[in-house]
Amino acid sequence: MKILMFGWEFPPHISGGLGTACFGLTKALVSLGHEISFVIPKVLSDVGSVPVNLISASGVHVREVSSETVKVFKGLDIRLINSVLTPYASERQYGNLLQKRSLNLSVHENAPGEAYGSTVFDISPHYGSNLIAEVIRYARVAGSIAKSCSFDVIHAHDWMTVLAGLYAKEKSGKPLILHIHSLEFDRSGEHVNQNIYYVERFGMVVADHIVTVSHYTKEVIVHHYGINPDKISVVHNAVTRKEAEPLYHAKKNPDKKIILFLGRITFQKGPEYFVEAAAKVLKKIPEATFVMAGSGDMMPLMIERVAELGIGKNVHFTGFLQGTDIEQIFTMSDLYIMPSVSEPFGISPLEAMIYDVPVIISRQSGVAEILHHALKVDFWDVEEIANKIIALLKYPNLVAELVEKSREELHNVRWETAAEKIVQIYNHLVH
Amino acid sequence: MTNICLYFHVHQPQLLRHYTFFDIDHDHVYEDKERNLKRLNIVSEQCYLPANSVVLDLITRYKGNFRIAFSITGILLDQLEKHRADVLDSFTRLADTGCVEFIGETYYHSFAFLFSAREFREQAMLHKNRIKTLFGQNPRTFRHAGLIYNNDLAKIVEKMGYHIILAHGADKVSGWSSPHYVYQPAGCKKLKLLLRSDRLSGDITLRFSNAQWSEYPLFADTYASWIHAMHGTGDVINLAIDYQIFGEHGRKESGIYEFMRLLPREILKHPDFKFLTPAEIARNLDPVAQLDVRDSVACADGENDISDWLGNSLQRDAVASLYGMEAKLRRRKDEELLRTWRLLQESENFYYMCTKGLANGDEHTFPNPYGSPYDAYINYMNIIDDFSGILDKKRSSTNEGA
Question: Would the pTM count as exceeding 0.90?
Fold first, then answer.
């Protein structure tokens, strides 16, 4: 089967779980004998640092596009579209990004009159116009690839690519699968950006089928977006094992246990519950060390709170980590915590488990649906989070049992299984 | 003549409350009294009272030909005495019929036998005395929690004066031998051994309410025909049934009450079948052979050994921490501390820490009241930590927090 896929990011340039998931899923799909053309936005400053061959693409007849094809592995073509879209940036950050880019985007030429879909959802010109306009421009450019290549199904990941997928569907008449990894409700809680919500919902209504990464997300879509549950299939994410041995063999210091938070320091990830639990733990175990790896709009607030609690000596901020730094921090850690407020899936606990690090995960996460050998908490129950951290630091048998059973459990968490389910959905739509 | 030996196990595990690390040294109340009372009331209404009434009717109707045995744990008797005197009365009325035998066991439904011979004997004696006081019987039959059994247990039980012991009829125990005969434990001279009929007991305990089962719905006449088919292939059929099949595990609508009402009639239709209690069997039947069982066997899912309770490092750590306190505890000579320590011995505490099969989805048949085996372990170890602090500090266990 030939698949035209629209994504946001792809390794090595990733800022969150979406790129990791796309890599794992496409690799597994290709291993099952399918061919994928993968279209992603490319921030201009990144050119040159992509460690794969860039091959210029042909047949995309949109003037402003500089589209290139990247070969990552056989069976997968990656096409890069010039755009500042990145998955997890906020509206304000887009303003900055767009200004930095010296190109004139001619936003007003494209939106709102001519742009695809603009008559269907009402985009406020006063709120979110920059971000939405860029999404629409990307849709036209990326979607036009549909005219130049042949494929059987269109597979779009998350809301930013929905319109590109729809454009491609309109040009080709092929079925569209919308794969939801994250929703505006997860990212922003009650303060949803209405425009993004409209794009998400519009995509769900017109897509031929929806795939979610958890039952948790399926429920949100049914209840908050009013979509028929029969149209939604759950395909849990998995984790990719590195073939090479971990680069670092940092010895853990038994007298100084490290408790890790790794992720964007944003509302969705619940960083404040990590900090409050740390304060409680430190009252009982003063030598424990807490590491917050990542960056995000709540980072200044967290630093202030740590200072206020007087625990700065034991709580460290690393900033945004990539590649081998992530491997190193996992290797050094004794415990990984994901206290997310709302997590559609959450691959990083699985990554921690690969490094034999026991995990505490939020019950409000998709990964909690597939993990049995993990400690689970309600994100708001700070005392219980602290209780479980202390238990893992104090009871070595608990760590041993969790690590041993996690290794067994990880054997069943495979991208091939996810890919097989996806192919079943393709077959159902094509035939 | 084939004897039907029907015995019901009656027990309610005492749940521990959610006990965090922050409670240690502050709060010394471990039991979840509210939840335990709620469960006791539910099971009293749905199971104990209606089931006892059915059993009493049957005994009256069959004038001595329907005879059964109960094994009731000491902790349940304590709870009933305190909160549900009506249920305790209904058991007393059954005792008064002369057709019901009460079986001996460890008072706190514990595994003390595996860790402390002294504690095991004390708990068995406590239970024996309690049964004597409440029901006017001196237990002659012994049943270990989880139907755990091996040669060593048999030897101790014989010394303590019991006449017969009950065990699980796993292939591991009986080997080629049929569970439908009376045996003598290896190394014993007087004690007799009965083996639970796994299939016929399981048909009621495990499968009766399962709509996917090929024999569902099971009626008394069909079941009796299976029993009658054993005619000539043994002396005794031992049916060990969890009493909570009435009510909680087998809902009223499942037809379990109707099944029970008709079962004696259907079984007694065949003139070569009769009901006897275990002690009566010990009096009337001689063992056909010796059975040599060196490794512990138990009535458990899958492996028929003690691994469901003590198979993983969490369970072994918890149980070792508990029994490791015994010497220190005994030196304190404090009845209240002793009672608390014994409550912590309840076998289900360890069963809830079982991690087997979790990832395959075939979790244990009833939901874990602590959420997960890991949570059960954390909770238990926090309590052990507090309790051992009390023993070390030589201060009173009176609760400071509540």
Answer: no
Cβ B30 vs Cβ B94: under 8 Å: no
> What length is written for chain B?
402
Verify whether the Cβ–Cβ distance A397 to B375 is below 8 Å: no
CB-CB under 8 Å, B378 with A391:
yes
Helix orientation angle between A17-31 and A415-430, rounded to the nearest 10 degrees? 70
For chain A, give every residue range classified as CATH 3.40.50.2000: 2-238+415-430, 258-410
The residue of B19, B317, B363, B378 whose CB has the most chain A CBs within 10 angstroms, and thus the best one to mutate to test that interface, is B378
Whether the CB-CB separation of A274 and A303 falls below 8 Å is answered with no
pLDDT in tens, B41-80: 999 999 999 999 999 999 999 999 999 999 999 999 999 9
Contact assignment for B20 to A383 by CB distance below 8 Å:
yes
Cα separation, B247 vs B254, in Å, equals: 9
What's A2-238+415-430's CATH class?
alpha beta
| CA quadruple B390, B11, B138, B189: dihedral sign | negative
The model's confidence at residue A416, banded by pLDDT at 50, 70 and 90, is very high
**Can you tell me the distance from the alpha carbon of A197 to that of A208, in angstroms, rounded to the nearest whole number?**
19
Mean pLDDT calculated for residue range A257-272: 94
ipTM of this predicted structure: 0.83
Q: Give the residue, B380 or A62, on which the prediction is more confident.
A: B380
Scored b (16 or more CB within 10 A) or e, A93-124 reads ebeebbeebeeebebeebbbeebbbbeebebe
Which CATH fold would you assign to the domain A258-410?
Rossmann fold (3.40.50)
- The whole-number pLDDT of residue A223 equals 94
DSSP B47: I
Nearest CB among B313, B359, B377 relative to A373 is that of: B359
In a 3-state reduction of DSSP, which class is residue A340? coil
H/E segment holding residue A184: helix A184-188
